[in-house]
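User: Here's a chain of 321 residues. Predict its fold as tokens.
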Amino acid sequence: MNWRDINRRYEAGVWAVPLALFPSFLLSAAFGQPSCIEPIIEIVYAYTPVSFANVVLNLFGPFARPLALVGAIALIMPLGGLLGIGAPPLFDPKLHFREGLRWVSETAAAIGFGICLGSAAATSVSAVAAVLAGILFSPMLLWTRTWRRSKARIAGRRKVIGALLGTPLVTIGILTLSTYEVWSTLAVQVFSLGNKVHRIFPFTSPRSRQPGFPIAGLEPEVTPIPLFYVNSKNTTEPLQLAENWTLRITGLVHDPVTLPYSQLLALPRTDLYATLRCVDNPIDGHLMSTALWSGVRISTLLSLVKPLANANTIVFHAADQ
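Assistant: Prediction complete.
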């Protein structure tokens, strides 16, 4: 196997990754759940310096999250390339047992990687999607191995671009995967597999007070909902069905309790205006908004469970971890 053959096999493995991910993304999108590579995205976030992350957020705004998704895919693609190098020649009637065993090993390795991703997934749907991507890698690799590259000599710049982007099909696939948050939201509405947006409490927000004199650039006292800042580590937020959602309060308490959503709504409700400011909000930044919040006070919940005398901290866990 010469260098040219190694390069061709590596490219086939790299190109097979987004093609294998696409059906798994469709599965996650239909249920409004995070993509199967969300654990890798969390690694990207964890090892990105805060100062650099702030620059990216301020520079790209809503496009920063698709960039994180592309970064996660870029981390997986070289692994696919290595599997592509190790894959034996394409199937033929005279395929030897040893080469068949290599294909089985390749498939097992891809599925094993999918299982590892699935074990770190936040939801069962994302876990199944990760395993599905692992199963689909080998068939996609068989397909990309059949692609033929032009033998004509290509200029240096075009050669580099071709090596980075692969074929137009792969490029379109990566761009489509990067906009997962957009079309996953649309898929939930089409398939009706997630929550429908509805108003829980009947209330009308009061009008913002007007200053006695005009002030240029003054933000509204109450932030309109479409303008409320969003800063999340997720490429898409997991949707929770109200009938399956519960609030569990355990730990250093006398009476641990599990409250379904209906019982939580039955508890005394408090309405208050509060301003939220992101810890990463720079000077003159816009990651700060004010809204009317409704819910149950922490003190009400604590009165139900009766904390022990040595309890001094509350730790929250949510579906997006």
